[in-house]
Amino acid sequence: MIGRNEEVNVSQGIASSFSCQNNCCGPTDLNARMNPSTASMPINSNAYPFVSQCQSYTCDASSNYQYYWTNWTSAATYNWSSDNSSVASVSSTYVGNNAQVTTGSTGGTANISGSIDYDKNGLVWDPCARVYCCGVIATYTSTSNPPGQLQVNCGDTRDGLRTEYFPQNYGADFIPGCGEFTFGNSGDQITTHFTFGELNVRDIASNEYPNWAILRNYFLTAIENTRSNYNAALNVSPPGSAYRSPFINAILNPPGATNSRHIHGDAVDFASDSNTWDAIANAATNAGATCVESRQATFPGHVHASWGPSGTC
Ligand SMILES: [Zn+2]
To answer: Which domain range does residue 82 map to?
Structure first.
C-alpha cells in the first residue's frame, strides 16, 4: 500500500507532508520514553520535569526509515506513576505533554515511569506510529525504560548534610528526609532548659552545617525528664554532645560508632565528673533511656544516654 498523508502540528504551527513507501510503513519498533531521563526538583513543589515522547519515523527517498523522537500529543493515553510517593507523586494533570509532579517534604529519589497505550480511547490517528499512513491500526504499549529518575532536593545546605548520610561516606544506616532536620540559631531555646547551641555544640564548633540538626521530639522530652529527675542543671558542652553530623561523628577521637544514635538525633552525652556520673546515669535510666553506656566506657567525663530502638546505642 502506498499512501500520502499530511501531519499538522497545531501547537507548533508546523505542517509537513510525507509519503510512505510500500516497504517502509506499518507497525515497527517504535519506542516510548520519558525525557529527560533524570531531573531534580526541590521539596514541597510542583513542576513538569518530564515530557513523554515516542519515536516517529519518516521514509527517505531510498525507502529507509528515518527515526526521530517527538512529543506525545495525546495526554489521555499516557499513564504516569511514581515508585516513592512520599518523595514525589505524579498526577494526571497535564500541561502540554508534561504530567505534574508534586514533591513531598522528604528528599530522596523517586523513579517516575509511564506507559503509552496508542489505542486507548479509540484513537485512530497516531502521530507517532502514523498508522493512517500505512492503513494499519496499531495497538502499542511501552513503558519508558529506564524510568525517569527524579532527585528531590531540600534546596538549601541540608542537601550537603544529607549526603553525609549516604552509606558509602560514613556508613550511616539511614538517610534522613529534609523534614527530619530542625533549623536553629545557637541561642534558640529548643526546650525549657536546652538551647539549639547546646544540642548542636560540636557541629557548631566546627562550622559543620551549624544551623541544622536532627532533634527528635521524643528525645527532647526525654532530656527534660532526665534533668527533672536529676533535679539540677545538666551540661551538654564538650566532652558532652547531642546531635552530631556523620562527618563530625567520624572524626571524633575515638570515632563514634557509624550508627551512633548521635547521628539519629536521639542521643546525648551529659558532661559529668566522679561525683555526678551515677546520679546522671540513674536520671537518664529513669527517663526511659534505651541505652546508657557503661560506667567503664564513659566514667567520669560523660554519661551517654540514648532513646533509640532497643539494642541501639
Ligand atoms: Zn555519646
So the answer is: 3-153
Of residues 199 and 98, more confidence is placed in: 199
Residues with Cβ within 8 Å of 168's Cβ and at least 6 positions away in sequence, in order, are none
Question: Measured in angstroms, how far is the CA atom of residue 38 from the centroid of ligand 1?
Answer: 40
Gap between the Cα atoms of 10 and 202, Å rounded: 61
**Of 153, 173, 203, which residue is a domain's last?**
153
Using the mean position of ligand 1's atoms as its centre, give its distance from the Cα of residue 156 in Å: 28
In this structure, what C-alpha cell is assigned to residue 263?
547521628
DSSP H/E element including 11: none
Residues 189 and 136 reside in one and the same domain:
no
| Residue 137: inside a domain | yes
Q: What is the pLDDT of residues 6-23, one digit of tens each?
A: 333 333 333 334 444 444
CA of 268 to the centre of ligand 1 (A): 6
Residue 14 shares a structural domain with residue 125: yes
Q: What pLDDT score was predicted for residue 121?
A: 38
CA of residue 168 to ligand 1 center, whole Å: 23
**Highest mean pLDDT out of 32-41, 50-59, 129-138, 217-226:** 217-226
User: What is the reported pTM?
Assistant: 0.65
Q: Which three cell numbers stand for residue 68?
A: 526521530
Query: Ligand 1 centroid to 163 CA: how many Å?
Result: 22
310 vs 25 pLDDT, higher one:
310
CATH of the domain at 294: 3.30.1380.10
- Stretch 248-252: mean pLDDT: 94
Q: How far is the CA of 42 from the centre of ligand 1 (A)?
A: 33
Cα-to-centroid distance, 24 and ligand 1 (Å) = 71
Sheet holding 88-95, edge to edge: 46-47, 98-103, 88-95
Query: Is the distance from CB of 237 to CB of 194 less than 8 angstroms?
Result: no
- CA 6 – ligand 1 centroid, Å: 73
Please give the pLDDT value at position 8: 34
